[in-house]
Design brief:
7-stranded mixed β-sheet; alpha/beta; Aspartate Aminotransferase, domain 1; 387 residues; 3-stranded antiparallel β-sheet; Aspartate Aminotransferase, domain 2; binds pyridoxal-5'-phosphate
Length: 387
């Protein structure tokens, strides 16, 4: 057997490891996945069914995707992201992930450094390694609700730095980076000629007075930003594998060179479903947001009653939170999660999965029914009481 050295150096995903271990135990309260548990709304499924019945889904589309879909995406980007664009600047992708892959492969040369404000989505870290780049993790400021460390980012820049990748709202911390900070980040990118790749998977799930801001809406950033979006979270379409990427039209031909070998085109049936999602009522998105707000509040209440076991920042967005744990001497977050799974039957994700700055934390997902959260916390209360 011969495997690439680069691949051998990449560690297995801790999220998938917890899922695997959870399957070996009966009746686990499962808070490990950032995957909506709701089903895809009916009108979206119907769009797909109609397309199948009309014989529209058996072939490829152009690599960028259906014109009608891209026209709807252009309207959405203008309306909700303040990004004025045209269909020649949009590629439909296999979820946000494929957009991120296509973007990273298009811009990185071996040894290029990529700054990742972290903790961050573990796949971003792995993706940079896969493209033979070097992830440079700059810690978020936990004491300031995981704010971007603008000075820290400036200091981390070297002649090898090519890009910054961030997700806002952030996975795993739930932080919504405010416009002011993202404008500062944009200034850094312009000053040092860096690309910014954004992952805006949770754009619609922001709470309280937080606001989602797309860095591509800053006119000077047009040739510097590659923005990745998805239907996965917004419309509970995880399995449809459909998202899109926005970039300046001069960048698109280069990104297309990586998009085609990755996928040729996004799944055609899902492109039709996505048209229905964008053209149909957006009531479902508001309902999902209201549900996550309720489950976030419930999770915070339950954490408050866990008597100093965890300290946490209230997430302003996403459906994830990242409480800190006091670890026993010599123990790490993986050992902590595995023990809690075995002894309390509660599945969480170890913070170390999100980069070294994630150690001593757990990621908890609140994209689950309220009863699942109550089940998990009833068990944790009993577990920590007897310790
Ligand atoms: C920040 C972030 N980006 C991307 C993804 C994957 O999105 P998609 O299903 O659109 O590929 C996830 C999934 O959990 C995520 O949390």
């Amino acid at each position: 057997m011969r495997i690439s050295e680069k691949i051998l150096r990449i560690k297995k995903s801790a999220i998938h490891e917890m899922t695997r271990l959870s399957k070996e135990i009966d009746d686990v309260a499962f808070l490990s996945w950032a995957k909506p548990t709701s089903d895809t709304p009916e009108h979206i499924k119907e769009g797909a069914i109609d397309a199948i019945k009309s014989g529209l889904v058996g072939g490829y589309t152009t690599s960028a995707g259906l014109v009608e879909l891209r026209q709807e995406i252009v309207k959405k980007l203008g309306r909700d992201n303040a990004v004025k664009t045209s269909i020649s600047e949009v590629i439909t992708t296999v979820g946000a992930i494929e957009g991120l892959c296509a973007a990273v492969f298009a811009i990185l040369d071996p040894g290029d450094e990529v700054i990742l404000p972290s903790p961050t989505y573990s796949t971003h870290i792995r993706l940079v390694r896969l493209a033979s780049g070097k992830p440079v993790m700059v810690p978020l400021i936990e004491e300031e609700n995981y704010a971007l460390d603008i000075e820290g980012i400036r200091k981390a820049i070297t002649p090898k730095t090519k890009a910054i990748i961030y997700c806002s709202p952030n996975n795993p911390t739930g932080t919504v980076f405010p416009e002011k900070q993202l404008r500062q980040l944009a200034e850094i990118a312009l000053e040092h000629n860096l690309m910014i790749i954004t992952d805006e998977a949770y754009e619609y799930f922001v709470f309280d007075d937080h606001k989602h801001f797309s860095i591509a809406s800053i006119p000077e950033m047009r040739k510097k930003a590659i923005s990745c979006y998805t239907f996965t979270k917004t419309y509970a379409m995880t399995g449809w594998r459909i998202g899109y990427l926005h970039a300046d039209e001069e960048l698109i031909p280069h990104i297309t060179k990586t998009h085609i070998p990755l996928t040729i085109c996004a799944p055609v049936v899902s492109q039709y479903a996505a048209i229905s999602a964008l053209k149909g009522s957006q009531k479902c998105v508001n309902e999902f947001r209201d549900h996550y707000l309720a489950t976030r509040n419930l999770m915070c209440d339950r954490l408050d009653n866990l008597d100093n076991v965890f300290s946490y920042n209230k997430p302003g967005g996403s459906y994830l939170m990242f409480p800190k744990i006091e670890l026993e001497e010599g123990k790490d977050s993986s050992a902590f999660c595995k023990r809690m799974l075995r002894e309390a039957k509660v599945s969480t994700t170890p913070g170390i999965a999100f980069g070294p700055t994630g150690e001593s934390h757990l990621r908890l997902s609140f994209c689950v029914p309220e009863k699942e959260i109550n089940k998990a916390f009833d068990r944790m209360e009993a577990y920590f009481k007897q310790k």
